[in-house]
Amino acid sequence: MPTTDSFRRPDLLRLPYDDYRALPAIANSDLSRLRDALNGRYQKPSAMNGALGLGTAFHTALLEPELYEAGQPGINDSLIWWMVEGVKLDPYLNDLLLRGTPEPSCIFTEPTTDTVCKLRADLVAPETDRGYTIIDFKTTMARDYNHFLAQCSGYDYDRQAAFYLDALQADQFLLVGVQKVEPFSLFTVEVPTYMLEEGRAKYLRLLQLLQPGAEVPSYLSAAVRDVRDGLTNDAE
């Protein structure tokens, strides 16, 4: 997405996660809820059971290790730290971890739909030899690089990449797949232009459906309404 003369990159905010969730704006996860509703997979949010997922535990250990709590039910702490160590053994990724800002949030207005949106990135490194870089870490069961690359479109990581990159006018978006089973390989994907274009089309279509005056087929109206209502009543 081209930069306009009037563009001002939104500020990166250091917010506790609960404060970020409370921001009255549309997040990428809200778009996933709408996607699921359109595909007949939507379920209204229910109270969380308190269980910590492996992906959340890994992200905390990697990006905010001071907040990591060992001994959580269902979490193999040794596995988590093995995966973290695997990332840090990669010289390029370790340099980004040392130089970047972990878990920054921002709020912005998406210009095409004039929608107030928000994001919380895993890691942002504004000054690298490849320019302003956003990095997102994904735990994966992918067998190899090509398998993970295919998952990037199938799991709508392309939509997330375009949503974040456009908001921050970044130069590149890196998706880093971290195998959660042996051999614990890393798959680093610099999201290419064609994938960003596909992701951009995805997020714009979903944002347009959320507009108050949007024309929605009758068989989808209840699902879209549920998501719209949820955005006004629920945290992300």
TrEMBL record:
It comes from the Bacteria. Residues 83-210 form the Putative exodeoxyribonuclease 8 PDDEXK-like domain. InterPro entries: PDDEXK-like_dom_sf, Put_RecE_PDDEXK-like_dom. This is PD-(D/E)XK nuclease-like domain-containing protein.
